[in-house]
Amino acid sequence: MGSTWRRRALPLALVLLAAAGCDGAPDARPEPTASPATPVARVCAEPRTGPATAPAGAVTVDPAVTGDLAAKTRNSPPDTTFWLRPGRHTLAPDRYAQVVPKNGNSYLGAPGAVLDGRRTNQYAFGGTARDVTVRHLTVQGFVAPHDEGVVNHDSADGWVIEHSTIQNNSGAGLMAGARQQVRANCLRDNGQYGMNAYKAGGRISGLVVEGNEITGNNTGDWERRRPGCGCTGGVKFWAVDGADVRGNWVHDNRGTGLWADTNNNDFRIERNVIEANDGAALIYETSYNAVIRDNTIRRNNWVEGRKYADRGDTFPFATVYLSESGGEPRVRARTDRIEIHHNLLENNWSGITLWENADRFCNSPANTSSGDCTLLVEDTDRCVRPGIATAPLYADCRWRTQRVDIHDNRFVLDKSVVDCAVKCDRMAVLANYGTYPDWSPYQGERVAETITHGQHNRWHDNVYVGPWKFVAHDPSRVLDPGQWQAAPYRQDEGSTFRARDGG
């Protein structure tokens, strides 16, 4: 599994922006448009209730009978609809007494229907059945182990989870399979993840995560218990090919809000409100091709950003963090780049960082996605000398932060709101100095030079309000807006810089 936190090696100096009230743009072009007002998915406070009476043909499940749901599932054919009466439903007192659906089953909760694991059962719904539906049901009190999930434990395909509350469980509230639809749910206060989109031994395609409230997850504080594990988030995505993540309210999670880690591709992350998460709003790591647009991103990363700053860590700890991720035309997707546009980023701890670890590539000991290689190389064993030193393996054996287009965003920073003096005001594109292993062809400044000048990473037509600073190439390259816009960087053409709104 990948981890993001193993790449800080060099201190970053601070820089000064243009004088207060000065406009950094040389012309009078219209301001880029800000992100539109984004509706907030207040699902947890305003859940949609289920049917008060059993639908025609449904099997009624009685909360007074322990294990009634699992037993009736075993004794009914595929494509059966089950209606859970109001009340607290329980399973047999065995950790493996989960419900095992059959293909096409549907589980509908009446108003007040709760499936409670009583801190005894590990899983609520498991097995490999396809096209299962769970609606209007509260699922709570299950104790899934680390990295495992409560609903759709085995990452079966085609599940639909809607209008449900999945809360106060250990592990992940739910797992994900191919073509899964997760809509209008409250994923709240789960021990590790709200959802863990991971399928053992395979890729997940066609995932939809829409209109959910995802809040308070990682109650187990796993990054503290296992430092550098990269194993937390409101939602974590692994090897997902094609995901629409839209209209969600992702807030107040302990750690990262949304984290795509290791060979994800073709994401659309749009119209979300991502706020007040302890860590980054969004991490896109060792992954490909995404559109990130029309999101409202505010007050994220205050806890983790300040923690690392107080320790003297001067890495530009970003609210939107792209780590070894970029556009790749050879990996089929709806776009051939990572495009970040028409977002509002307001009073977060820093802005966007584009990073590429010079020492992280296939077969390198610095590759924290242990055993994984890029989507461009099928035979990982090829990524060694002498072949890796020449084309095409020189490029294909490493995840590259390339073809990133950042435009028409609004970046607002008021340090009195964020309550910081320094280190919360950064935008960056950089790499570390390559050092190991001794057979690496990426040593020295090669990667820093290419991520800055040779991989088509571009900021333009943005609005900056507040004392923003910029770091390019490596920590010794400290730039003010004029230097950032001038040769050799030529970034943020058409953008404006000012100290405050109305300044």
Question: How do you describe this structure in short?
Answer:
This protein has 503 residues and is mostly beta strands.
Alpha carbon gap, first and last residue: 46 Å
The average pLDDT score comes to: 92
Q: What overall form do the CA principal axes indicate?
A: globular
Structural class by secondary-structure content? mainly beta
Largest sheet: 13 strands, parallel
C-alpha-based Rg, rounded: 24 Å
Q: Give, in spatial order, the strands making up the sheet with the most strands.
A: 1-2-4-6-9-12-15-18-21-24-27-30-33
Stretches where pLDDT is under 50 for at least 5 consecutive residues are 1-35
Strand content is 25-35%
- The percent of residues in helical segments reads under 10%
Number of strands: 37
Number of helices: 7
Commentary on this structure:
- This protein has a domain at 1-38 and 271-503.
- The longest helix is centred in the middle third of the chain and has 9 residues, at 302-310.
- The strands form 3 sheets. The protein has a 13-stranded parallel sheet with strand order 1-2-4-6-9-12-15-18-21-24-27-30-33, with helices on one face. A 13-stranded parallel sheet has the order 3-5-7-10-13-16-19-22-25-28-31-34-37, with no helix packed on it. The chain has an 11-stranded mixed sheet with strand order 8-11-14-17-20-23-26-29-32-35-36.
- 8% of the residues lie in helices and 29% in strands.
- By secondary structure, the chain is mainly β.
